[in-house]
Design goal:
Bound molecules: beta-D-galactopyranuronic acid
Radius of gyration: 20 Å
Number of helices: 10
Strand content: 15-25%
Amino acid sequence: MNQPVHWLIGMLFTIRVASAQTNPPMRTAEPAGPPGYNYDETKVGTYTLPDLMLTAGGKRITDKAGWTGRRAELLQLFAENVYGKTPAQPVRLRFKTTSVEQSARNGLAIRKQVSIFFADYPQLPPIEVLLYIPKGATKRVPVMMGLNFCGNHCITTEPDIALSTRWVGNAIGEVSVNNRATEKARGMQERRWPVDTILKRGYALATAYYGDIEPDHPKGWQTGIRSVLGDSTRYGDNQASEWGAIGAWAWGMSRIMDYLQTDPAIDARRVVLMGHSRIGKAALWAGAQDERFAAIISNESGEGGAALARREYGETVERINTNFPHWFTGRYKTYNRRAADLPVDQHQLLALIAPRPLYVASADGDQWSDPKGEFLGALQAEPAYKLYGKTGLGTATFPGLNQSIGQTVRYHDRTGKHDVTDYDWAQYLRFADELVR
Ligand code: GTR
């Protein structure tokens, strides 16, 4: 099949949110194309990763006490150079349960919809949380939580979930028209959300549309949380460390956690935060900053997520900054074509999850996300786990396809394309059963 046809078919199955430019046609090995990405391993060359355990002042960290300071230093470096500084001021929230269905999904679930309003910013629309709780649970339940790409209506065919009214990217197939969802979008990403399987395993599922926090386009901040928090006059400023959209999505994940902590059915000490792709980048940043999340799952988060930036393989720093100018902080753009000068690399982000369980997953047909770079990121987080007497990945050998490896840090490279599949969920549920329950 030629590549344009392949691409078109891919488009029909995935919603594509708007970006300043389009992505390259394929997410797998192909000859050199437009600048700013690389599929040639020989071009990766040698690189030196910043030392996880060496502070800016040159002190070597050897114990947990020392790591506390180093951890704070790394968080600050990621804020200043990559994601931007998350505004620290507390925001007053108001939770409103808008519906409770006592017997959803053929009696498997109690289904709740909860709006998270921002009391001080009435002009902002709420984050609409869709929560499924296993029916008949006798005690508080652990949660799988993850933002979705296209509105709560697209993870399920249940007709009484209202269509999101927020901005969505225009996509092929009339699933959205004029940047608004249509009925055709209902259930379109159902396959990525095995709700019944999750419930039967004893987990609740909490999700919300990431566009409720900030619509994913360069001007999206104007109607999202960054319009009221942060210095919007400096969002386009390459000298500045103001937060970007990924920072905003991560912040929103913590606000959903704020809600979960108030729900009597939920065990908020066991919230597993999962994110795919750009939402995976945000999930890692949320998990690094907010230690209430019990475990983090990064599904093909790639550049700016689990993949080492210095490899400049697949998507590069330059490419992501060009395509998605609103995702990161301004200063990150100054590292275009000079990732080696970054004071951090992504293994250090993964280390900020320690000692909590972490799952990093790749797909072989998603070279854009650099499976090898994601594996190496996970591997190089090991010293942080060791400080807590834990084994992270515990092996430096890249696994065969469809093999889940590791201990407190796990990894797999499955067959297939950029996606979330049943295979992925089977690993995540086992990981959560073994390490979080
Ligand atoms: C891509 C982008 C990736 C990844 C992906 C997604 O086009 O280049 O970094 O975030 O979108 O979110 O699906």
